[in-house]
């Protein structure tokens, strides 16, 4: 039996141990359970109001640097059915354990938040983009910053659940 050949998603000759990454993680079935987009008052832009599950995810994202001193979370947003995160993996600081990989950081966010939630929460994989330079970094920072205001145009957009239908996992 022949299986389809998958296109490699990793950059050839790139060291995935150190660097900046733009990561997107979607909820299982792209369910809108992490936050609600609320219209800003006055001149305030739309913003994400986290649900209880979203607050759990927020806590787990913020704990990454404590768990992995060689990793920093530069910027993130918790959208209704996905999160965007800029993850920076720094050079090994010489600790007794090897530096974590991007996959380690993502795995911890997903597994700890799902465990605390008590049910499957995330889709199987995640999307990563290597941030190649300062312009790329600034463009991604701006994208994350403006993502709530552009929710209806987002590729992960899902209209609100009609009244009377379940809106959580």
Describe this structure in words.
With 169 residues, the protein is α+β, with helices and mostly antiparallel strands. The chain is built from three helices and six strands. It has helices spanning 52-67, 102-117, 134-146; strands spanning 19-26, 35-38, 47-50, 71-78, 82-89, 127-131. Strands 4-5-1-6 form a four-stranded antiparallel beta sheet, sandwiched between helices. Strands 2-3 form a two-stranded antiparallel sheet. A hairpin with an 8-residue loop joins strand 2 and strand 3 (47-50). Helix 1 (52-67) packs antiparallel against helix 2. It starts with 18 loop residues before the first strand and ends in a 23-residue tail after the last helix.
CATH fold description = Alpha-Beta Plaits
Order of helices and strands: EEEHEEHEH
Q: In CATH, what is the homologous superfamily? A: Transposase IS200-like
Biggest pleated sheet: 4 strands, antiparallel
Number of domain modules = 1
- Strand segment tally: 6
Shape descriptor reads: globular
**Would you state the CATH class?**
Alpha Beta
Structural class: alpha+beta
- Tell me the helix content: 25-40%
